[in-house]
Design a protein that fits this description.
By secondary structure, the protein is mainly β. The chain has 2 helices and 8 strands. It has an 8-stranded antiparallel beta barrel with strand order 1-2-3-4-5-6-7-8. β6 and β7 form a beta hairpin.
């Protein structure tokens, strides 16, 4: 029975793969951080972000999507509009490497095999998993004490268009709600050391980070037979 199930799954996947259209390409843009250190503006791109992206177009309205993105997140109290943060004067940097998988939905049909130019707005969501440096406040400076990993929820709004019969250009604005409040070192957690007296800011509010950029993907694969 187990062998039969494996054979059926393998056959189904092979048939689906041969019947779909794929996209692979790159992402480039900028990122910014929202937390307890630095500016509180949600759209304030300030550091380069780059990565790779893959899409499996399951229908004219939705695609399965995977990506890897890397960026540097930075927060400087001097850049905040909050006078208390400016007076505090903390600053940090943290390198983020993110893996994300999920589903992309277009607002209307986006058929890459049409001869006419195609364009459509879209939404993307799923789950992200990212690595970052754990920070804590040491003598007025935020310093690293190790590496950590956690999850985030991606929420992306974009607009894509065909620029030829093989290439698709997309513009994206995306937010990540993270499952940590430690990217900026405001809420450090470690089993071997007591950081309770070093916490600051709103420890009941998790960190966010944003991406603003473009994607360029190359399409390949057989013309799909979309089945609903």
């Amino acid at each position: 029975m187990r062998r039969l199930v494996i054979l059926l799954v393998a056959f189904t996947l092979s048939q689906s793969t041969n019947a779909q259209l794929h996209e692979i390409g790159g992402y480039i843009g900028y990122s910014n951080f929202i937390g307890d250190v630095g500016s509180t503006q949600y759209i304030n791109p300030n550091h380069l972000a780059y990565g790779a992206i893959y899409k499996w177009n399951r229908s004219e309205r939705h695609s399965f999507r995977a990506s890897i993105t890397r960026t540097l997140l930075e927060g400087k109290d001097i850049n905040s509009d909050d006078p208390s943060r400016q007076l505090r004067g903390l600053a940090f940097t943290n390198t983020i490497t993110e893996l994300s998988v999920g589903i992309e939905f277009t607002f209307w049909e986006f058929n890459l095999h049409e001869t006419d130019p195609q364009s459509a707005p879209y939404l993307y969501t799923g789950i992200s998993y990212f690595s970052y440096d754990s920070l804590f406040l040491d003598n007025g400076e935020l310093v690293s004490f190790g590496d950590d990993n956690t999850f985030a929820i991606p929420m992306v709004l974009g607009y894509k268009m065909t620029v030829s019969d093989k290439w698709v250009l997309g513009f994206e604005l995306g937010a990540r709600y993270t499952f940590t409040d430690g990217i900026d070192g405001s809420n450090p957690v470690n089993d071997k050391k007591d950081f309770e007296n070093l916490k600051f800011g709103n420890i009941n509010s998790n960190d966010w980070y944003m991406f603003t950029g473009i994607t360029l993907t190359y399409t390949f694969g057989k013309k799909p037979c979309y089945c609903y």
